[in-house]
Amino acid sequence: MLRFAGCRGLRPGWRIWTRGRRTERVPGAQPSPPRPRPQPPGSGPGTLSAAGLAFLPAARLFPQDEKEQRDPEDDIVLLIKQAKLSAMRGKLEDADHLLHQALKLAHQSHNNQAITYTYVQMANLAFLRGDLHNAEKLFKAAMSQLLGSGTRQDDNAVIEMSLKLCSIYASTERHGLAVEGYKWCIETLEEKVQSQKAVPEESLSAAEKENTRLLLGMSLDSCARYMMSRKQLELAESLYEKALAISQQVQGETHPQTVVLMNDLATVLDMKGHHERAYDYVRRASNLARDTSHPDECVILYNLARVLMHRGNYSEAKQVYEEALKQAEAKADKPVIERIREGMEELEVKTLQFRVLGETNH
């Protein structure tokens, strides 16, 4: 018997909250300045690509039979594993072909749980490839399968897929659907978190409760990024504050996600003109990034330099920009290098204007 579990998948543009996993930005959100993209420990050359992260380990979703001869379920498992491996290697067409084979076998064997899980993997892959139209159809098909099998509407797997649909709506400029979707995800999870507090641990483990809280944090975070992209800064600030509080409580002060959220909150505050509060958060984030060798320290330093520039600390801003540029060049991160250089040019202009104004006043 197959056991279906949650469907945590990601693609470029999707931020995911789990211990030690990568976090990225929500599709359609283009805040300035750029934001960190934490990697799991040991990431880099020779480790999993973003494509590989689209397929998380099945974690015994499909317990194997002890029989010597494989049954159809074993073949489905093998095809999905091969698809994951192809995705890790960046061979997305091969992964898609393998998943279609798995889906065909699942239908032939009338294995509804395998059908649902394969739909989710196909949706994640389409999401990864930027094929949002098909991703939307596949997520809806998977949700329909889940709900049709008796899964509750507030099940975390259903909410995760709903959240990805919100992201698709946001990136395809269906603002009404995106907002309603985010609202439903957040309110449903807030009620669920509250109700789970009274459930004894023998009935619901602490890890399961944490997963629900992390999913709430992820929903708040994703919605905040979308609101920031639409310049709804008051709402974005409130959402980021709640997301940061959850990350600090569940994952700790030094977790890469917590550092990212400090940085994101600082960005919103800086955009609102609250430069002193922004400085407090981004300074804390940059200190933690240095102490923990955060994979995107250069991006956080870039944000620190911008806030320093907006505070009028031009000399210190220049030093931080130079440090950020050195790190970005060492990583050959061209987009970040370009943005840092743009910031340094802006700083140079502001410094010159300040000097001219000072000379005029004298």
Description:
- Helices cover 69% and strands 0% of the residues.
- Helix 6 runs antiparallel to helix 7.
- Mean pLDDT is 83; it is low at 1-16 and 18-67.
- It has two domains: 1-38 and 47-195 and 223-230, Tetratricopeptide repeat domain (Serine Threonine Protein Phosphatase 5, Tetratricopeptide repeat, Alpha Horseshoe); 255-362, Tetratricopeptide repeat domain (Serine Threonine Protein Phosphatase 5, Tetratricopeptide repeat).
- It has helices spanning 50-53, 72-88, 92-108, 112-128, 132-148, 156-171, 175-196, 206-229, 233-251, 256-271, 275-292, 297-311, 314-331, 334-361.
- The protein is built from 14 helices and no strands.
- It is mostly helical and 362 residues long.
Rg from alpha-carbon coordinates: 22 Å
Q: Give the name of the CATH architecture of the largest domain.
A: Alpha Horseshoe
Per CATH, the superfamily of the largest domain is Tetratricopeptide repeat domain
Order of helices and strands: HHHHHHHHHHHHHH
| Percent of residues in helices | 55-70%
SSE class: mainly alpha
What is the third-level CATH name, the topology of the largest domain? Serine Threonine Protein Phosphatase 5, Tetratricopeptide repeat
Roughly how many Å apart are the termini? 83 Å
Number of helices: 14
The strand count comes to: 0
Let me know the average pLDDT. 83
What's a quick, concise take on this entry?
By secondary structure, the protein is mostly helical.
Any descriptors?
about 350 residues, mainly alpha, Serine Threonine Protein Phosphatase 5, Tetratricopeptide repeat, 2 domains, single chain
